[in-house]
Amino acid sequence: MEYISQECYDKMVAELHDLLSVERPRIAEAIAEARDKGDLSENFEYHAAKREQGRLEGRIDRLKVKLANARIIQRSQLTTDSVQVFSTVELTDLTHNRRMTYTIVNPMESDFSLHKISIKTPIAQGLLKKQVGDVVEIKVPAGILKLRIDKISIE
């Protein structure tokens, strides 16, 4: 089971709808056109379309599984008592004397450029269930970070 936001769920549903209603018919048409060209054993267009169809069907299957296992988290039900999925955490890196802010999200929603980190990262794992004022030491590939939690919010 994966906890996701309503936005992520809606995005996956829209993608699945597009794959089923636009991409699948487009590929089926490409296969039919390639089949009409004759000998399938040496028909590059046919084999390319069949490979594309296989990739598409795999993507459709993966999306269906993700949607079946998804549980939408209502942000209004979350608290700021401790760090959890969808918490926005303001931190002070005591090791390098700098401030940073991260929102902890599921892996599908992570985007480091937006400061959204996956709940599966070492930093997120080290922060889970911690409270404002706690100082944690987290082992990351570059060494050990000493972080102080300054604020927890839900955005």
Residues in helices, as a percent range: 40-55%
Instruction: Output the number of helix runs.
Output: 3
Q: Between the first and last Cα atoms, what is the distance in angstroms?
A: 23 Å
β content, as a range?
Answer: 25-35%
Low-confidence stretches: none
Nutshell version of this structure?
The protein is of the alpha/beta class and 155 residues long. The chain is built from three helices and seven strands.
Structure description:
The protein is α/β, with parallel strands linked by helices and 155 residues long. Helices cover 40% and strands 27% of the residues. The protein has 3 helices and 7 strands; from the N terminus they run βααββββαββ. It has a 5-stranded mixed beta sheet. Strand 3 and strand 4 form a beta hairpin. Helix 1 runs antiparallel to helix 2. The protein is elongated and about 70 Å long. The model has no long low-confidence stretch (mean pLDDT 92).
Give the helices and strands, then pairings.
Elements lengths: L1 E3 L1 H30 L8 H26 E3 L14 E7 L4 E8 L10 E3 L3 H6 L7 E6 L2 E12 L1
Parallel strand pairs: 1-2, 4-5
Antiparallel strand pairs: 3-4, 3-7, 6-7
Q: Main attributes?
A:
single chain; 155 residues; alpha/beta; five-stranded mixed sheet; 40% helix; elongated
